[in-house]
Amino acid sequence: MSATLNATAVLARLDKLDQGVADATKASGDLGGDVDIGWMILCGALVFFMQAGFALLETGGVRAKNAGSALAKNLLDGAIGAILYYLVGYAFSYGVSTNPNSFIGSARFALKDAPTTEYATFFFQWTFVATAATFVSGAVAERL
């Protein structure tokens, strides 16, 4: 009789544990999506820190009189790149198009009607756009 009661108690506890896991899963919501967004923001920040490294590299490769303009050029690469990518770049890259044979997107200019889950993708892609513009900036240092 004692073994039967113990087995019943164990099954009751397992059911209670199973219900607790189900409740915890519901409470966490879409944790995987949140982790993905956090990871994209972290990686985007690391790529953006490459901007500082490229600015220092370019500044070290030019004469002292041009160091300030090299730094300003790198700052403007990020700033102007952010504005232009926000206004048209993201829409061209990821905008939804009504024509299935279109070459570029024709919607979501200035992130209009973009779901909030795409903001992390925008930030991540913008960091690469800004970094690519900095490559050109360093290549033409003291040549323009």
**Poorly predicted segments:** none
Spatial extent as radius of gyration: 26 Å
| Proportion in β-strands | under 5%
Largest sheet data: none
Helical residue percent band: over 70%
Number of helices: 4
Question: What is the number of E strands?
Answer: 0
Mean pLDDT: 85
What best-fitting shape do the alpha-carbon axes yield?
A: elongated
Order of helices and strands: HHHH
Structural class: mainly alpha
How widely separated are the two ends? 93 Å
Overview of this structure, please?
It is elongated, with a radius of gyration of 26 Å. The chain contains 4 helices and no strands. It is mainly α and 144 residues long.
Kindly summarize this structure in a few lines.
The chain has 144 residues and is an all-alpha fold. The chain is 74% helix and 0% strand.
Write the layout of secondary structure elements.
Layout: H1 2-28, H2 31-60, H3 67-94, H4 119-139
Helix pairs in contact: 2-3, 2-4, 3-4
Quick tags:
elongated; 144 residues; 4 helices; mainly alpha
